[in-house]
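Today's session is about reading a structure prediction critically. Students often jump straight to the picture, but the first step is always the sequence itself: look for stretches that repeat, for charged clusters, for runs of hydrophobic residues. Only then move on to the predicted structure, which in these notes is written as discrete structure tokens rather than atom positions. Here is the chain we will use throughout the hour.
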Amino acid sequence: MKNSRMTSLLAAVALTALLGGLSACGEDTSSTSAADESTASATTSSTQSAVLSIEDPWIKVAEDGMTGAFGKLVNSGDEDIVVTAASSEVASMMELHETTMNADGEMAMSPIEGGFVIPAGGTHVLEPGGDHLMVMGVTRPIAAGESVVITLTLEDGSTLEVTAIGKNFAGANEEYVGDDSSDMGEMSDHS
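Below is the predicted structure for this chain, in token form.
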């Protein structure tokens, strides 16, 4: 009888341990699922780069100094997207620029406040003489036909890598205005 009781008691303990273990596994699984859902949610909320593309991206060839990058940004999403920054291994610095009339009645380039807004379902053109990516402190020559990777940073923190093709372009010969060529201030367009 002792053996029978002991066997029953051991069976009950084993069953309790097994059910407790399965229950803990279930808790771990739901905990993991919650973490997975949190990750999926974070990924889902950072989808601006998934609905942004660029048509015909190109960069003006340059030996050194500065140049510009262009193309047509396309937003296939249902919310506005803002490009807040750009970078590339071919530049020590990049800025988002607009071209506007200055106080002297000349066209001048300057950093754009707030970034480039690409409307929901719309486009935003980057072109010589207009909005563009200003590539400053060119770190190596950019040749015609060369592929240059530019990373765009969006307002939600996501990024989009763009491959721009080097092109010869005679217009938009930018020059800095000021005493020092390293001055990153006001620039004028001498196209």
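Discussion point for the tutorial: The first strand starts at residue 52 and ends at 60.
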